[in-house]
Amino acid sequence: MSDATAPPFAGLAHFAFTVRDLEASVAWYQKVFQAELVNGKLPHYGREWTGYAELVIEPRTGLAIGLHHNAGNQGEEFDEVRTGLDHISLKVDGREGLLAWSDWLDRLGVAHSGIQSVKEPFVYSVVIFRDIDNIQLEVMAVGV
């Protein structure tokens, strides 16, 4: 068993969030990522009775973002202090990518941190923002 290695994966296929207002979240992700809505609803695997998801696709990378309606959702805002997702970080190329995102979010009126540079435990810079359910998203450039 000590020689065993985990099988590889080729990249990120999608990420998914449970949201409070599916229609409003779809519109927000379409606006911010210029994502295209996929026609049709996706069931919750093994829990089809609890709700469904709609999928939007970011057209340049093909990254899929699942936005889930769940019948048990009580309408509370996302809070990363609870067990589960903390945030999603998307890689961008260099300071130019960070500036482009900062400018884009400004144009859309989406509040963000501006470019934050960090030296420890490794060098990176990041722009942090939140969706309408308070889910933290960030764009990050390593070595910048």
Low-pLDDT parts are none
Overall morphology: globular
Strand content: 25-35%
SSE order in H/E notation? EHEEEEEHEEE
- Specify the structural class: alpha+beta
Q: Would you report the number of β strands?
A: 9
Termini distance? 39 Å
Share in helix: 10-25%
Number of helices: 2
Rg estimate, integer Å: 17 Å
Q: Mean pLDDT score, rounded?
A: 93
The major beta sheet can be summarized as: 5 strands, mixed
Would you write up a description of this structure?
The strands form two sheets. Strands 1, 2, 3, 4 and 5 form a five-stranded mixed sheet that branches. A four-stranded mixed sheet has the order 6-9-8-7, covered by helices on one side. The chain has helices spanning 22-33, 94-108; strands at 14-18, 36-37, 42-43, 51-57, 64-70, 87-91, 116-118, 124-130, 136-142. By secondary structure, it is α+β, with helices and mostly antiparallel strands. It starts with 13 loop residues before the first strand and ends with a strand.
